[in-house]
Structure to design on (867 residues):
């Protein structure tokens, strides 16, 4: 009876009753909640001894609130913090109206007649109101009051775990500190496994509280994040609104231009132009970048190399469980460091093999003979792992090491005891974790993709991602970046229908999450699938979406008009009345939004109202002027025909030649080519066979997928009669997938004579040797075995191992129980109160050892140095 009474009160909106129900629900998880209500928004503050798991808690609380059916609630905001901390570690807003609508859409109901009415998935951007319907985005003018953006009371920063024990990077640290003090951005680039991420994680806690960066420190780590999505993420750190709002590009620039931020960008695929553009948008901020290739050309850009021999020996010695007491062992460690060329990631794997008794130090040296030292070492580790461990690593390799949640790994691998296996792989340093995601190094990804057949895991991911999204009200797809490797594989292997199904399934979450840069990438994969399937209806839908996105973001390149016009033409040919109406409505807004249309109209109005007398005079002179022009034209044609020489066999007869051209090749196919590479140009010869000049247009890209350029040409803007010229075209793709373009040859009046079709397929790099360091080519002579080990004399300093022994593979570590403290009495508003930051100045003198700030506590498990 008491439970029933509490639930009835909660359905009526009683805050205490809602709090009691939520606490009862979260009690098994060791989490306690405090609930408040303000302006139709339910505020829920969560606290626990460990960082609360975001995905499961948001889903659990969302379902409970939805079950209560409180119609007066429009949204809920969940804040999570650890005991004893005031700042939340994460927050999540749940639009209850949207979730409630999705929930009812999955329940049995009467059929609604087909019409133009959209679903309730809607948001606002700029001067437009946008709704997602089965026919695509429906855009309408925003007639309501302008959305008011509010600064968050406390910006939300998600920072990674610290990395205090860093070996061999002191020069790079000192150089970075000097550059930041001089207000210059910093970049570290190099191949995978050199410790770029570890270096950034060391720096972030060493300099984040510098008072020069008054707006805080931001950590961004996403290889597939576009420039637009990165700006959207920075915008959401500081601003919020009462409704779902997608700011335009100009609004984001205006809101971020005065921010003084320290922006860490790890593992990025941004182009150098993107980085330069970001710096121009945030001129008062400093960027610290880690990437595989150089992106920064203004500031401090450093190529990260292998560790020196001295640092490599220290790296191995400190991580070995056994004490080094003999000169033979020290010589063997030096030999191992030479074999691995000072590569941090492979040295860590070698240490793990020794610590876990896979092989001894001497046995490992005998096995790791050049060439392919790194690959042999990784294969040696994989051979001793159970099949279930290998399956989990294979699942993480399918998403290119981006990262998945534990629930997603369990579903895709179909392995039991996933939590225990992940803990063991963490101790092996084969897997790392951050923000509740598990990921692996790119070096390991390349070896796994080469050693195992990942096709079953790709197919399972392709179907499961679709099912998860279609069957859930609160999306399980919280890491949408993992879509790109799956879609790229489906594109290469021509799984067109499955690819198209996934694109349609994830559209809603990408629309509402405002990740429109990623949304456009996903839609382009869908467009390729629809073309391959000859699915005209899906092709028109995707073109409608691409054009509408450009319209909503005030795109001025003409992409909105071009895509919407093509979509309208296809939909009209198919007789889809509702879809035609949706596209025509959006296309009409494109015409209205063109600034040049207003200018032309205004010019015409001013011109026609100036002098009416001149207008009547012009009307009267027009017939006379036309007669004069006609007479001159007739005289010119007759005189020209009389003076022309008669052709052979046709005396006194005039022959008019058709304008024609000859092209050495009407189709250029570059075949398959790796992204970010350039090959030799393909050259074509154009011959003008006619007696008049012809013109050559520009390369017209198809859906911005061109990536073709004219590298060299001998052709002018017009080709004279009976003349030839050469054009060399280069293919330089930067995005995986099929690329196409065309080059037109026209006459002087713009009539199309011939068209050269250009195409190519961009594929991902297949050669793992680009990222896996190779051992030195020189032969290394192994030390001769001694009959009796010689001990180091007492005068020699003993090497002390600070790292505790790691547990064996069969016994994963057991977490220490933590006593749950009492629930804090602060209200949700108190949790978001901005504290006064402590100031930390740069050191006056250069440190003589690796910087390890006092305010950083060493975690129980020291992360790998080769991330």
């Amino acid at each position: 009876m008491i439970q029933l009474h509490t639930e009835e009160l909660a359905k009526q909106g009683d805050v205490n009753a809602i709090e009691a129900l939520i606490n009862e629900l979260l009690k098994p998880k060791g989490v306690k909640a405090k609930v408040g209500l303000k302006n139709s928004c339910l505020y829920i503050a969560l606290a626990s001894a460990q960082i609360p798991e975001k995905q499961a808690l948001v889903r659990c609380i969302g379902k409970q609130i939805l079950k209560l059916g409180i119609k007066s609630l429009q949204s809920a905001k969940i804040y999570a913090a650890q005991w004893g901390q005031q700042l939340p570690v994460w927050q999540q807003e749940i639009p209850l109206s949207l979730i409630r609508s999705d929930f009812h859409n999955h329940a049995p109901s009467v059929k609604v007649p087909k019409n133009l009415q959209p679903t309730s998935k809607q948001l606002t951007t700029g001067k437009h109101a946008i709704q997602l319907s089965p026919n695509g985005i429906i855009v309408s003018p925003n007639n309501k009051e302008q959305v008011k953006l509010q600064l968050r009371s406390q910006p939300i920063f998600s920072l990674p775990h610290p990395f205090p024990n860093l070996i061999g990077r002191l020069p790079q640290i000192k150089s970075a500190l000097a550059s930041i003090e001089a207000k210059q951005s910093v970049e570290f680039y190099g191949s995978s496994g050199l410790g770029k991420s570890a270096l950034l994680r060391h720096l972030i806690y060493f300099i984040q509280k510098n008072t020069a960066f008054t707006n805080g420190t931001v950590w961004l780590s996403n290889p597939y994040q576009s420039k637009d999505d990165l700006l959207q993420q920075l915008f959401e750190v500081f601003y919020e609104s009462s409704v779902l709002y997608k700011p335009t590009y100009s609004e984001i620039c205006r809101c971020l231009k005065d921010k003084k931020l320290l922006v860490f960008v790890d593992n990025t695929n941004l182009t150098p132009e993107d980085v330069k553009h970001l710096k121009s948008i945030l001129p008062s901020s400093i960027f610290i970048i880690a990437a595989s290739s150089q992106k920064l050309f203004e500031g401090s850009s450093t190529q990260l190399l292998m560790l020196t021999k001295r640092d490599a020996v220290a790296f191995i010695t400190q991580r070995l469980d056994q004490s080094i007491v003999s000169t033979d062992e020290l010589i063997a460690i030096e030999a191992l460091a030479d074999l691995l060329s000072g590569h941090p990631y492979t040295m860590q794997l070698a240490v793990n093999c020794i610590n876990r008794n896979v092989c001894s130090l001497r046995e490992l040296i005998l096995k790791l003979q050049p060439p392919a030292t790194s690959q042999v070492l990784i294969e040696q580790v994989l051979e001793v792992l159970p099949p279930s461990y290998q399956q989990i690593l294979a699942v993480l390799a399918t998403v290119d090491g981006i990262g998945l949640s534990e629930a997603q790994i369990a579903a895709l691998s179909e392995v039991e005891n996933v939590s225990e296996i992940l803990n063991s792989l963490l101790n092996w340093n084969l897997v790392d974790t951050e923000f509740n995601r598990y990921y692996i190094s790119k070096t390991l990804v390349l070896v796994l993709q080469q050693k195992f057949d990942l096709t079953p895991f790709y197919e399972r991911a392709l179907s499961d991602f679709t099912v998860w999204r279609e069957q859930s009200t609160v999306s399980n797809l919280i890491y949408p970046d993992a879509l790109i490797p799956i879609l790229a594989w489906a594109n290469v292997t021509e799984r067109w229908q499955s690819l198209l199904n996934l694109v349609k399934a994830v559209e809603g979450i990408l629309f509402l999450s405002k990740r429109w840069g990623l949304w456009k990438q996903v839609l382009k994969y869908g467009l390729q699938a629809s073309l391959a399937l000859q699915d005209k209806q899906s092709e028109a839908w995707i073109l409608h979406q691409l054009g509408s996105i450009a319209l909503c973001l005030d795109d001025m390149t003409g992409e909105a008009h071009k895509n919407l016009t093509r979509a309208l033409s296809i939909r009209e040919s198919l007789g889809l009345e509702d879809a035609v109406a949706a596209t025509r409505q959006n296309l009409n807004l494109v015409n209205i939004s063109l600034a040049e249309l207003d200018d032309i109209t205004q010019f015409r109005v001013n011109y026609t109202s100036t002098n009416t007398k001149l207008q009547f005079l012009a009307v009267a002179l027009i017939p006379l002027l036309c007669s004069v022009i006609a007479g001159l034209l007739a005289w010119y044609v007759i005189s020209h025909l009389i003076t022309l020489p008669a052709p052979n066999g046709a005396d006194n007869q005039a022959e008019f030649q058709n304008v024609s051209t000859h092209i050495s090749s009407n189709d250029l196919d570059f075949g398959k080519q790796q992204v970010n590479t350039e090959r030799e140009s393909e050259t074509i010869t154009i011959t003008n066979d006619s007696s008049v000049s012809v013109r050559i247009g520009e390369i017209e890209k198809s859906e911005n997928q061109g990536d073709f350029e004219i590298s060299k040409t001998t052709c002018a803007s017009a080709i004279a009669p009976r003349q030839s010229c050469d054009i060399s075209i280069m293919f330089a793709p930067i995005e995986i997938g099929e690329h196409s373009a065309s080059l037109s040859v026209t006459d002087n009046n713009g009539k199309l004579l011939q068209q050269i079709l250009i195409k190519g397929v961009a594929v991902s790099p297949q050669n793992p040797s680009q990222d896996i360091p190779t051992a030195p080519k020189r032969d290394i002579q192994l030390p001769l075995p001694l009959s009796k080990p010689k001990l180091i004399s007492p005068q020699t300093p003993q090497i002390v191992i600070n790292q505790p022994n790691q547990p064996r593979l069969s016994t994963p570590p057991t977490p220490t129980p933590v006593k749950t403290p009492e629930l804090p009495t602060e209200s949700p508003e108190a949790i978001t109160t901005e504290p006064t930051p402590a100031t930390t100045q740069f050191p006056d003198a250069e440190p003589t050892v690796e910087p390890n700030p006092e305010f950083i506590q060493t975690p129980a498990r020291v992360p790998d140095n080769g991330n």
In short: The first helix runs from residue 2 to 11.
